[in-house]
Amino acid sequence: MLDLFSKDRIVNEAGLRAALRHLDARSSSGATALQATVEHMLSSPHIFAYIISVWDRREAMISQIMTDFPTKSQEYPASIARKMLDNLSMNFLACPAESLAMDVSRDITHHRCFSEGALPVLFALNSMEFSGARSFEDEIFDKSNDRFVKKKVRNRNRPKAHTSIDRSLFVRLGVVVPLTSEAAALLSTQILAKLKNALSFYFSLLRRTELAGDIKALLFPIVGEYAKYVAPEVSSTDVESPTDRLNVYQLVQHMKTALYFDNADGFGEWRILISTQAYKHLREFRRADKNIFKIIFKKIKQLSNGHFSDDNHKRLNGPDAGIPIYDAKMTKDLRLVYQIDCVPDKDGKSERQVIKIYGIYMDAQLDRVWDALGSHLARKGREYRRRCIFRKRPLLSKYSAILPGSFPLADPEPECPGSPLNLSDKDNDHLHSLLVLEKYVTFSQAFLHSLIADQDVQHVFMLTPQEQKIVECTTSCYVLGRRGTGKTTTMLFKILGIQRAWEMSAIDMLKPRQIFVTKSRVLATRVEEYFTKLLESLALAGYTLEELAKMKARSVQEGPVDLNDLPESQMNMPMKYSELEDKHFPLFLTFDRLAKMIAADIFSKKDSAGVFFNADAHDCFVTYDVFTNQYWPYFPQNLSQNLNPWLVFSEFMGIIKGSEHTLTCPEGVLDRQTYLLLPHRSNPNFANQRGILYDMFEHYTKMKRQRRHHDVADRTHAILKVLRSQRFPGQQIDYLYVDEAQDNLLIDALFLRQLCKNPDGLFWAGEISAESSFRFSDLKAFLYRVEQQNISVNSAGACPRQPAMFQLAINYRSHGGIINCASSVVELITKFWPNTIDNLRPEKEVVDGPKPVFFTDWDKDTVHHQQFWLQMRDKAELCILVRDNAARQKFRDQVGQIGLIMTLYESKGMEFDDVLLYNFFEDSAIDLSRWHIVLNGVDGRGYAPNFERDEARYAGVCSELKLLYVGITRAKKNVWIVDKSDRSEPMRKFWTSRNQIENCTLRTCVPHPVSTPEEWAYFGHSLFSYKRYPQAIHCFERANLHRKAKVCEAYQLREVARSSVGVASLSDQKRAFNVAADAFSDCAATATGIEKLQYYRNSADCYVRAGDDLKATKAYLKFHRSRATCPCGIDGGLIHHFTIDYYSPYPSLYRPGYVLDVLPRTICSSSVPGISVFHDNLITRLKALSQIQLDFEKRAKDAEGKFTEKFAEMRRQLDVR
């Protein structure tokens, strides 16, 4: 009779009725008969779920199953409950996502992942044996030495080693390997309780009538598979399961669990949040005094269990200071400072009280800042204060512990105005750090283990509600926000959440392929390093104490090395995109690196395009630096006069060659007529100089063609042209993250979009662009048209959901004084040129701060000039910003080498504590009459020109305001504006009318503290990473790090040599490269490790460019000798093998004997692209030559031995004769 439940029988109503009648009869016959029928239904997919969903007598069976649910781990694997859980979890996992609420869909995957991972953990728990155990605290606080090892205690047994236990099973389930039998039993009980809860959840879904149709459709599909909407169009080698790929896309819905962490083992109900400053304090005490660390640890654990007393819950700030701040006494003079805060709970549907620890301070350090902190927090409103001071008393009087309160989510209250905080500069900085800079981390098991192992890792910290919303967004999104608002953080946490959700999932699914792309190599490297440290910290949760004891604190002190010099093989990435494997993901790289990988796939090395794109970037690729050095001096003076090369180059790339309309132009550029007719309001840059700009563009194109150069727009157009006619190389990715999107061309967005097969997997982030008319609204509209037209992008053929748009308006790096001043500049741009900028809400600050200072007597009071500059010279993070190189040289001629002097372009992407904007208006090409247009923003302004009467006349002010915005927003603490021109008066009046600046004289200038050598060194490394070598030299000299200053000089000499290519004579070029090579060789002689290798390599490269083959050979030999003795474990991947296939277009280049003799000079004196390849070829040949030499010496020695014996024998014979 069991065939009654076959799919063919129950497809019609009569068959279904017969099956249900039989099920009624079996149910009446007893549990054993019913169980046999149920097990039969469970043997086929979807039948059990469908039958039970329509059976009106199911409740009795469900009640019996839940009552009989196993209570012992040994019983669960063979139970009927386990079989039901497996069947139902798979069944509902296949339900279409659009039929389910987001929280239901999330819970379905969560329960499936947990049930899959729970079974092997239960098996492992059953096999573990314990003969005794010590307390956790006894093990971690061993005073005998600095290692976490077990004490030798009499009459106390040690736990047996967990032989053959796979800790990764526990890590994937999110639990800790138990160290005692009691802990193992407790863990088994907790796992079984969660499994029972999961089964109850699935039974509740079977009762929901709105899901009946979907449950039936799984068994009897009417239309094709739901998963087809995500079926990617891939090559035949990349066949994927639709169900697997569906699960990968759904991972984004389950990141909340993946990024949420409970307290460490043994802690109580109160969740403990530790600030980064408190983490630093804990690490310091851990190293310095184990007894103090033990006291702190126990005090935190005591608070987590709600044991509040007069000793550990004493109010630190005054009763009128708003939100209470508490201190817990640990020793006579040591205090732990904390607050009862209220944050969103794990489910996101409620708020819960937590303990937020700010730091560990000496009694003398408890200053007025805590009163200010409480007053500032009180601005969040009455409801927030009520929730912070609420205490949940125990129901039974015999229990003294306080439990954390829980509240429903509250609507945000309008911020309450607060009285000004009269604090010193030091206290203001401390308050800013507590409210803005500090990140708060859960005191989890991973956090505790990082303290034990003393590892320099990063931890997942609490996000703001808006940041959390972005991370959990299930569609593509656009995120706008100035630097410091958290854009990159949300990207990083989304990548981590998806990766961790996949790792924790028990479902066998494909690894999600995620790529983070940005233009900056520095940003890509830093994000990857941060991601790696986050993964390392999470992995520590699964380590045993013995393993933690063996770990050593890492201290890496690397010298300055340009990341762009590192060979491709050292980046652990293949040369071609199609060769990427799962192990490479998540992938963090620059847009240029990604474009090269795609180009290596789609361009043949035998045709001109292949050679074109594989050529040496320093010789053939036109960057802005190449443009200013090799092109700008050769434009006719009557065209380039009074124009900014930065803005001109951006107009060439962003509008004439990189805008959307160029995709339909035959040559990939706007023709003159189209460019001249662009509307002034949306493209105000050069609005009344379009003819001149296009003349310059034609000069640029002609020079570029003669020099066989190409730029970023040429590269993107060439790639897109090929991709129109052939399939995308390799496997497309699941999630794409583009940071600083405003730095890319609009046509780059089409290229990047084709990387991602998931229409909901795109994340674009950026800010206002100072040098172009880039707008996110344009990007959004362009990509919408791309999706609609299906231009080889949406390979799945699905109708994508509308991307979400977010703005992060809270700035966490700066304060109100600077933010309000910068926002007023944006307001002016929006007022006059609304089509050139995205319409955003004004930025908000967390704390107030000093307003920018405008010096009004600069050209009158010359007596205090020298004193003023002397004050400025001793601050490391003070940058003097000037408009261009000519302005910098003029400043040095007048004042001398005072501190860091950078152009506005050089400061792009960087931040400084203090910024001095010098003669911005004086050096402006916009005259006073046009600057008067800003007075339209002043109430009662008197005379102000009429903008509508001649819009084109004032168009240049728009780009000036954007540059002014860049200058102001480079500062985090202070802005000084020094300008002696009357052109500055309109902006000064505008700011003064809004009370957004302080008008001061030199006599009122406040001196600033002198920076320490450590601060100079830190900032020197930062400047070096941005290739600001002259400024880095200055910092290292001030830090007395003369060797590092010499390294920066070598890099600067190489930059000078590179800039001479195409400008200076060939002999001058060689001379410049020879000087740079000598400098690198000198640096290598005193360096160690990777630095030594890289400096010798750089030296050899420069000698090749200088045409000195002998010195190049010697440098390469030193490189190999250093590599052989380098303790860094560098493998042979550093050396790329030369391939004759690359040189097939140049057969003369691989004649015997040609490589070591003629090839270097040929490459240096011709346009043949191959300098970098020659380097690899030379290394390979030298290795072979070295081996030949060794073989020769061995054979010579053998021959010498044989002949010596023969000569001795002949001599003996002669003697006999």
UniProtKB/TrEMBL annotation:
<dbReference type="Pfam" id="PF00580">
    <property type="entry name" value="UvrD-helicase"/>
</dbReference>
<dbReference type="InterPro" id="IPR014016">
    <property type="entry name" value="UvrD-like_ATP-bd"/>
</dbReference>
<dbReference type="GO" id="GO:0004386">
    <property type="term" value="F:helicase activity"/>
</dbReference>
<dbReference type="InterPro" id="IPR027417">
    <property type="entry name" value="P-loop_NTPase"/>
</dbReference>
<feature type="domain" description="UvrD-like helicase ATP-binding">
    <location>
        <begin position="464"/>
        <end position="766"/>
    </location>
</feature>
<keyword id="KW-0378">Hydrolase</keyword>
<protein>
    <submittedName>
        <fullName>P-loop containing nucleoside triphosphate hydrolase protein</fullName>
    </submittedName>
</protein>
<dbReference type="GO" id="GO:0016787">
    <property type="term" value="F:hydrolase activity"/>
</dbReference>
<keyword id="KW-0067">ATP-binding</keyword>
<dbReference type="GO" id="GO:0005524">
    <property type="term" value="F:ATP binding"/>
</dbReference>
<keyword id="KW-0547">Nucleotide-binding</keyword>
<dbReference type="InterPro" id="IPR014017">
    <property type="entry name" value="DNA_helicase_UvrD-like_C"/>
</dbReference>
<dbReference type="Pfam" id="PF13361">
    <property type="entry name" value="UvrD_C"/>
</dbReference>
<feature type="domain" description="UvrD-like helicase C-terminal">
    <location>
        <begin position="894"/>
        <end position="978"/>
    </location>
</feature>
<dbReference type="InterPro" id="IPR039904">
    <property type="entry name" value="TRANK1"/>
</dbReference>
<keyword id="KW-0347">Helicase</keyword>
